[in-house]
Amino acid sequence: MSGLLRIVLIVHGIITLAAAVMLAVLPAAIPATVGIELDPEAYLLSYFLAAAELAIAMLSLGAIRMTDPAAVGLIVAVFVVFHLSTAVLELVYLASAPVTGVLIANIAVRVAAAAIFVIAWRRWRRLATTGVERHPAM
């Protein structure tokens, strides 16, 4: 696997794992960053999200050992869909909630993450297909 895609998957896995731990240990903390107050009765929602984040982290970290372009492509596609659909749903949420800088930043980070995954995967796919690393002309 190319260095760029490997780094992207590792960083993504670590960040997603950290989110899973935060949601499980402090279930109200992440929602509070965008002004959502969770009562203890609603913590189950954070726990469900923590489980999903944990699964995504495991997939991201596990993918670094994969060499099959179709399998890696599917994993990258899932991450792109996850981040872009989350960004769209956050925009839907903004239609009925106050705009916060944290939420806008999160939308921007998710769109950027999706773009980075696509770029890294395309580069890896090209390297896997040709076996030759291409560098931009200086």
* Count of distinct strands: 0
The fraction of residues assigned to DSSP E strands is under 5%
Shape: elongated
N/C terminus separation: 24 Å
Q: What profile does the largest beta sheet have?
A: none
Detail the poorly predicted runs.
133-138
Spatial extent as radius of gyration: 17 Å
Mean pLDDT across all residues, rounded?
92
Structural class: mainly alpha
Succession of helices and strands: HHHHH
Into how many domains do the coordinates divide? 1
The portion of residues assigned to helices is over 70%
Total count of helical runs of at least 4 residues = 5
Detailed description of the structure:
With 138 residues, the protein is mainly α. It is elongated. It has five helices and no strands. 19% of the residues are buried. It has one domain (3-130).
